[in-house]
Design goal:
This protein is α+β, with helices and mostly antiparallel strands and 295 residues long. The protein has 3 domains: 10-91 and 102-118, Immunoglobulin-like, CATH 2.60.40.790; 157-217; 220-273, Nucleotide Exchange Factor Grpe, Chain A, domain 2, CATH 2.30.22.10. Helix content is 36%, strand content 31%. The chain has a 4-stranded mixed beta sheet, with helices on one face. Strands 2-3-8-7 form a 4-stranded antiparallel beta sheet, with no helix packed on it. It is rod-shaped and about 140 Å long. It starts with 9 loop residues before the first strand and ends with a helix.
Length: 295
């Protein structure tokens, strides 16, 4: 038996090797182990066995008395006992009592091949781990970039809203100044003078300031007189009958309307022309003398 540096958690199973004329029989006790958890490898005259079970991990490396035939290996496992039958290579059989051994489960695996497969699996695991790490870094970067873009977008929207409010507030301040001047003009009217003219000029100035403010922020007045009536922008508060004017034509504006971004903030109240309809003669049950003569 060959002993190597062992993990403290590993256990050396009880192993017995009995040489026979046909080969050898290896018996290994593996309590608490299932058949699926047993791993066996044979390389030349070395047998390596590993198994995991409820009582821990078993591991052993055994030196065989000869190099077995890979095609002459059979394994059975029952009630925690593993039996491995090893056949000698052709030409190495003893002359006495040759007999064939039935093969229960053939094993064709070598230690070197398993080590190569393990190396390949380690390389694949390393590659997958590196890809996983790269993807995680990419996800973190995209999350941070999304948050930055979102904060930048919200900041830009807030800045635009602030500029519009500042612009609107600045225009309204000018309107307040004009109202103040108009009020002072009313107070001075007690002393005489051309107070009404000054009031008129002040009111016109306020109207012009509000109109200019609306134009700066995109609010425009709805055109009414001479236009065809549109219920999206006009509200009919009265009608007139003019045969010389087309039907559904606005003839007068009562209250101005305003529109912002092609949407009516307030529809214009207007008077709409309706063509007079010809009235049919009214028939009654009375008969005139002229009617009687026609009969």
């Amino acid at each position: 038996m060959i002993m190597a540096g062992r993990d403290p958690q590993e256990r050396e199973p009880t192993t017995e090797i009995v040489e026979t004329p046909e080969g050898a029989r290896v018996t290994v006790e593996l309590p608490g182990v299932t058949q699926e958890a047993i791993r066996i490898a044979v390389s030349r005259d070395i047998l390596k066995l590993e198994a995991d079970g409820t009582r821990g991990r078993f591991s052993t490396i055994q030196a065989l008395p000869f190099e077995p035939d890979p095609d002459g290996i059979s394994v059975t496992f029952s009630q925690g006992v593993l039996d491995i039958i090893l056949a000698r290579k052709q030409g190495e059989l003893c002359q006495e009592g040759e007999r064939s051994v039935p093969v229960v489960s053939p094993i064709d695996a070598s230690l070197e091949q398993m080590e190569k497969e393990m190396d390949g699996l380690r390389m694949e695991l390393s590659r997958i781990s590196e890809e996983k790490r790269s993807l995680e870094e990419r996800v973190i970067f995209l999350q941070k970039d999304y948050q930055n873009q979102r904060r930048r977008h919200e900041g830009e929207k807030e800045a635009v809203a602030d500029r519009r409010i500042e612009e609107l507030a600045g225009g309204l301040i000018d309107v307040l100044d004009s109202f103040k001047l108009a009020r002072e003009s009313l107070e001075r009217s007690r002393d005489g003078g051309n107070a009404l003219e000054r009031m008129k000029k002040g009111i016109v100035m306020i109207e012009n300031q509000v109109t200019a403010l609306f134009q700066r922020i995109g609010i425009s007045k709805i055109v009414t007189e001479g236009q065809h009536f549109d219920p999206n922008f006009h509200e009919a508060v009265g009608s007139s009958e003019d045969g010389g004017t087309e039907d559904e034509t606005i003839v007068k504006e009562v209250t101005a309307g305003y529109v912002y971004k092609e949407k009516a903030l307030r529809p214009a109240q207007v008077i709409v022309n309706r063509k007079p309809q010809e009235e049919a003669p009214i028939k009654t049950g009375r008969t005139t003398k002229r009617d009687k003569g026609k009969k």
